[in-house]
Amino acid sequence: MWKNLLITQNKQKINFFFSPITNIRNHMQWNNKYIYPKSSRSIVDGSRHYSVNEERLPSVTTILKATESEEKRASLQAWKQRVGQKQAAIITREASSRGSSMHDYLEKFLLGKLNLDLLGDNTKERMMADQIIENGLRNKLNEIWGCEATLYYPGKYAGATDCVGVYENKETIIDFKQSNKPKKDEWIDEYYLQCSAYALAHDIVHGSKITQAVILLCTKDNMFQRFLIDGERLKDYQNKFLEKVEQFYAQRRVN
Question: For 12, which DSSP code?
Protein backbone atom coordinates (compact mmCIF):
# COMPACT_ATOMS: atom_id res chain seq x y z
CA MET A 1 0.00 0.00 0.00
CA TRP A 2 1.10 3.54 -0.71
CA LYS A 3 1.00 5.77 2.35
CA ASN A 4 0.89 9.54 2.79
CA LEU A 5 1.09 10.29 -0.89
CA LEU A 6 -0.86 11.72 -3.75
CA ILE A 7 -0.11 10.50 -7.26
CA THR A 8 -1.03 12.15 -10.52
CA GLN A 9 0.27 11.45 -13.98
CA ASN A 10 -0.14 13.42 -17.14
CA LYS A 11 0.88 11.60 -20.27
CA GLN A 12 -0.10 14.41 -22.60
CA LYS A 13 2.23 17.05 -23.89
CA ILE A 14 2.14 20.10 -21.62
CA ASN A 15 2.19 23.64 -22.92
CA PHE A 16 2.94 26.33 -20.35
CA PHE A 17 0.40 29.09 -20.64
CA PHE A 18 0.92 31.85 -18.13
CA SER A 19 -2.65 32.16 -16.87
CA PRO A 20 -2.79 29.08 -14.56
CA ILE A 21 0.61 29.77 -13.01
CA THR A 22 -0.29 33.43 -12.59
CA ASN A 23 -3.35 32.28 -10.65
CA ILE A 24 -1.13 30.23 -8.36
CA ARG A 25 1.11 33.19 -7.66
CA ASN A 26 -1.90 35.29 -6.77
CA HIS A 27 -2.52 32.96 -3.82
CA MET A 28 1.04 33.22 -2.49
CA GLN A 29 2.59 36.07 -0.57
CA TRP A 30 6.16 36.76 0.41
CA ASN A 31 6.65 37.62 4.06
CA ASN A 32 10.22 38.50 4.98
CA LYS A 33 9.57 37.97 8.67
CA TYR A 34 12.91 36.22 9.23
CA ILE A 35 16.39 37.28 8.19
CA TYR A 36 18.33 34.32 6.87
CA PRO A 37 22.12 34.54 7.10
CA LYS A 38 24.45 34.64 4.17
CA SER A 39 26.70 31.63 3.81
CA SER A 40 29.42 30.17 1.65
CA ARG A 41 30.02 26.54 0.83
CA SER A 42 33.30 24.68 0.83
CA ILE A 43 34.54 21.11 0.61
CA VAL A 44 36.33 19.83 3.72
CA ASP A 45 37.82 16.33 3.53
CA GLY A 46 35.59 15.63 0.56
CA SER A 47 32.37 16.75 2.28
CA ARG A 48 30.27 19.88 1.95
CA HIS A 49 30.44 22.45 4.75
CA TYR A 50 28.81 25.84 5.24
CA SER A 51 30.49 28.93 6.63
CA VAL A 52 27.80 30.72 8.64
CA ASN A 53 28.33 33.48 11.19
CA GLU A 54 32.05 32.66 11.50
CA GLU A 55 31.33 28.95 12.03
CA ARG A 56 32.21 26.23 9.54
CA LEU A 57 29.52 23.59 9.90
CA PRO A 58 28.95 20.26 8.14
CA SER A 59 25.92 20.16 5.88
CA VAL A 60 22.88 18.08 6.70
CA THR A 61 23.58 15.85 3.71
CA THR A 62 27.20 15.40 4.80
CA ILE A 63 26.05 14.14 8.19
CA LEU A 64 23.48 11.80 6.66
CA LYS A 65 26.04 10.38 4.24
CA ALA A 66 28.66 9.85 6.96
CA THR A 67 26.22 8.07 9.27
CA GLU A 68 24.22 5.97 6.82
CA SER A 69 23.68 2.34 7.79
CA GLU A 70 25.82 -0.53 6.56
CA GLU A 71 22.65 -1.98 5.05
CA LYS A 72 22.13 1.10 2.89
CA ARG A 73 25.76 1.18 1.81
CA ALA A 74 25.58 -2.48 0.87
CA SER A 75 22.37 -1.90 -1.07
CA LEU A 76 23.96 0.96 -3.03
CA GLN A 77 27.02 -1.13 -3.82
CA ALA A 78 24.84 -4.04 -4.94
CA TRP A 79 22.96 -1.70 -7.31
CA LYS A 80 26.22 -0.44 -8.80
CA GLN A 81 27.39 -3.98 -9.37
CA ARG A 82 24.06 -4.95 -10.89
CA VAL A 83 23.94 -2.12 -13.46
CA GLY A 84 27.69 -1.71 -13.80
CA GLN A 85 29.90 1.04 -12.39
CA LYS A 86 29.94 3.03 -15.62
CA GLN A 87 26.16 2.93 -16.09
CA ALA A 88 25.60 3.73 -12.40
CA ALA A 89 27.76 6.84 -12.78
CA ILE A 90 25.76 7.91 -15.85
CA ILE A 91 22.42 7.41 -14.09
CA THR A 92 23.60 9.32 -11.02
CA ARG A 93 24.98 12.19 -13.10
CA GLU A 94 21.81 12.49 -15.18
CA ALA A 95 19.61 12.46 -12.06
CA SER A 96 21.74 15.16 -10.43
CA SER A 97 21.58 17.37 -13.51
CA ARG A 98 17.83 16.85 -13.87
CA GLY A 99 17.27 17.67 -10.20
CA SER A 100 19.35 20.85 -10.39
CA SER A 101 17.42 22.09 -13.43
CA MET A 102 14.05 21.29 -11.85
CA HIS A 103 15.06 23.11 -8.65
CA ASP A 104 16.16 26.09 -10.72
CA TYR A 105 12.73 26.35 -12.34
CA LEU A 106 10.98 26.09 -8.98
CA GLU A 107 13.23 28.66 -7.32
CA LYS A 108 12.63 31.13 -10.15
CA PHE A 109 8.89 30.50 -9.87
CA LEU A 110 8.86 31.22 -6.13
CA LEU A 111 10.89 34.38 -6.69
CA GLY A 112 8.56 35.51 -9.47
CA LYS A 113 11.42 35.39 -11.99
CA LEU A 114 10.22 32.51 -14.16
CA ASN A 115 9.54 33.59 -17.73
CA LEU A 116 5.87 32.68 -17.82
CA ASP A 117 5.53 33.93 -21.40
CA LEU A 118 7.91 31.24 -22.66
CA LEU A 119 5.53 28.90 -24.46
CA GLY A 120 6.50 25.46 -25.66
CA ASP A 121 9.19 24.92 -23.03
CA ASN A 122 8.52 21.22 -22.71
CA THR A 123 11.86 20.12 -21.34
CA LYS A 124 11.55 17.21 -18.94
CA GLU A 125 12.71 19.34 -16.01
CA ARG A 126 10.20 22.09 -16.75
CA MET A 127 7.36 19.57 -17.02
CA MET A 128 8.40 18.02 -13.70
CA ALA A 129 8.48 21.43 -12.06
CA ASP A 130 5.03 22.18 -13.46
CA GLN A 131 3.64 19.00 -11.87
CA ILE A 132 4.95 20.15 -8.50
CA ILE A 133 3.55 23.66 -9.00
CA GLU A 134 0.14 22.48 -10.15
CA ASN A 135 -0.33 19.59 -7.72
CA GLY A 136 1.84 20.52 -4.75
CA LEU A 137 1.76 24.32 -4.52
CA ARG A 138 -1.50 25.48 -6.09
CA ASN A 139 -3.89 26.76 -3.40
CA LYS A 140 -1.67 25.20 -0.72
CA LEU A 141 1.37 27.45 -0.29
CA ASN A 142 -0.09 30.47 1.49
CA GLU A 143 3.02 32.38 2.47
CA ILE A 144 6.72 32.21 1.56
CA TRP A 145 9.36 33.17 4.13
CA GLY A 146 12.35 32.10 2.09
CA CYS A 147 13.62 29.81 -0.65
CA GLU A 148 17.09 28.32 -0.76
CA ALA A 149 17.33 29.85 2.71
CA THR A 150 20.40 29.03 4.80
CA LEU A 151 19.47 27.35 8.07
CA TYR A 152 21.86 26.30 10.80
CA TYR A 153 21.97 24.84 14.28
CA PRO A 154 24.82 26.69 16.06
CA GLY A 155 27.81 24.45 16.61
CA LYS A 156 26.20 21.45 14.93
CA TYR A 157 25.14 21.66 11.28
CA ALA A 158 23.82 23.83 8.43
CA GLY A 159 21.97 23.54 5.14
CA ALA A 160 19.69 25.28 2.68
CA THR A 161 15.99 24.51 2.54
CA ASP A 162 14.17 24.64 -0.78
CA CYS A 163 11.27 26.59 0.73
CA VAL A 164 9.95 27.58 4.14
CA GLY A 165 6.70 29.31 4.94
CA VAL A 166 3.03 28.67 5.57
CA TYR A 167 1.62 25.66 3.75
CA GLU A 168 -2.04 24.74 4.21
CA ASN A 169 -2.06 27.25 7.08
CA LYS A 170 0.80 25.57 8.96
CA GLU A 171 4.43 26.61 9.43
CA THR A 172 6.24 24.25 7.10
CA ILE A 173 9.55 23.18 5.62
CA ILE A 174 9.06 22.25 1.94
CA ASP A 175 11.49 20.12 0.00
CA PHE A 176 11.46 19.43 -3.75
CA LYS A 177 12.67 16.04 -4.97
CA GLN A 178 13.02 14.25 -8.29
CA SER A 179 13.27 10.52 -8.75
CA ASN A 180 13.72 7.91 -11.44
CA LYS A 181 10.86 5.89 -9.99
CA PRO A 182 7.96 6.43 -7.53
CA LYS A 183 8.75 6.19 -3.82
CA LYS A 184 7.06 4.57 -0.85
CA ASP A 185 6.86 6.16 2.58
CA GLU A 186 9.14 3.56 4.13
CA TRP A 187 11.84 4.24 1.54
CA ILE A 188 12.40 7.91 2.28
CA ASP A 189 13.74 8.06 5.83
CA GLU A 190 16.63 10.20 4.58
CA TYR A 191 14.21 12.79 3.16
CA TYR A 192 12.39 12.95 6.48
CA LEU A 193 15.63 13.27 8.43
CA GLN A 194 16.79 16.10 6.16
CA CYS A 195 13.55 18.08 6.47
CA SER A 196 13.38 17.45 10.22
CA ALA A 197 16.90 18.83 10.59
CA TYR A 198 15.90 22.01 8.75
CA ALA A 199 12.75 22.41 10.84
CA LEU A 200 14.69 22.02 14.08
CA ALA A 201 17.37 24.51 13.00
CA HIS A 202 14.72 27.05 12.01
CA ASP A 203 12.97 26.75 15.36
CA ILE A 204 16.22 26.96 17.34
CA VAL A 205 17.54 30.09 15.60
CA HIS A 206 14.35 31.96 14.73
CA GLY A 207 11.99 30.87 17.50
CA SER A 208 9.46 29.58 14.98
CA LYS A 209 7.13 26.65 15.46
CA ILE A 210 7.50 24.49 12.39
CA THR A 211 4.82 21.83 12.71
CA GLN A 212 5.23 19.89 9.50
CA ALA A 213 7.51 19.08 6.59
CA VAL A 214 6.21 18.44 3.08
CA ILE A 215 8.12 16.64 0.36
CA LEU A 216 6.93 17.33 -3.19
CA LEU A 217 8.37 14.79 -5.60
CA CYS A 218 8.10 14.23 -9.33
CA THR A 219 9.54 11.31 -11.26
CA LYS A 220 11.24 11.63 -14.63
CA ASP A 221 8.06 10.11 -16.09
CA ASN A 222 6.04 13.04 -14.76
CA MET A 223 4.39 11.28 -11.81
CA PHE A 224 3.79 13.53 -8.80
CA GLN A 225 3.86 12.42 -5.16
CA ARG A 226 3.38 14.29 -1.91
CA PHE A 227 4.67 13.08 1.44
CA LEU A 228 3.94 14.84 4.74
CA ILE A 229 5.40 14.41 8.21
CA ASP A 230 4.11 16.20 11.30
CA GLY A 231 3.35 15.93 15.00
CA GLU A 232 5.17 13.33 17.08
CA ARG A 233 6.61 11.71 13.99
CA LEU A 234 8.37 14.95 13.06
CA LYS A 235 9.79 15.20 16.59
CA ASP A 236 10.94 11.58 16.45
CA TYR A 237 12.86 12.25 13.25
CA GLN A 238 14.39 15.38 14.77
CA ASN A 239 15.67 13.30 17.67
CA LYS A 240 16.96 10.66 15.25
CA PHE A 241 18.85 13.32 13.34
CA LEU A 242 20.40 14.73 16.51
CA GLU A 243 21.63 11.22 17.30
CA LYS A 244 23.26 11.17 13.88
CA VAL A 245 24.87 14.53 14.59
CA GLU A 246 26.43 13.12 17.74
CA GLN A 247 27.54 10.02 15.83
CA PHE A 248 29.11 12.21 13.15
CA TYR A 249 31.18 14.22 15.61
CA ALA A 250 32.16 11.08 17.52
CA GLN A 251 33.42 9.50 14.29
CA ARG A 252 35.37 12.66 13.46
CA ARG A 253 37.05 12.66 16.90
CA VAL A 254 38.14 9.05 16.38
CA ASN A 255 39.50 9.77 12.92
Answer: S
Q: What distance in Å separates the CA atoms of residue 69 and residue 245, rounded to the nearest whole number? A: 14
Of 187, 190, 183, 186, nearest to 217 by C-alpha is 183
Find the DSSP H helices in the chain: 18-26, 60-66, 70-83, 85-110, 124-132, 189-206, 231-254
Digit-by-digit pLDDT tens for the chain (255 residues) are: 333 444 333 333 333 333 334 444 556 799 999 999 999 988 888 888 999 998 999 999 999 999 987 777 777 677 677 878 787 677 778 777 787 889 999 999 999 887 654 544 668 888 999 999 999 998 999 999 999 999 999 999 999 999 999 999 999 999 999 999 999 999 999 999 999 999 999 999 999 999 999 999 999 999 999 999 999 999 999 999 999 999 999 998 876
**Side chain identity at residue 87, one-letter code:** Q
Q: Domain locations in the chain?
A: 40-254
If residue 217 lies in a helix (H) or strand (E), which one and from where to where? strand 212-219
Contact between 216 and 132 (Cβ < 8 Å): yes
Is 40-254 assigned to CATH 3.30.70?
no
Residue 72 CA to residue 133 CA, distance in Å, equals 32
- The angle subtended at Cα 31 by Cα 177 and Cα 129, nearest 5°, is 25
- Determine the residue type at 217: L
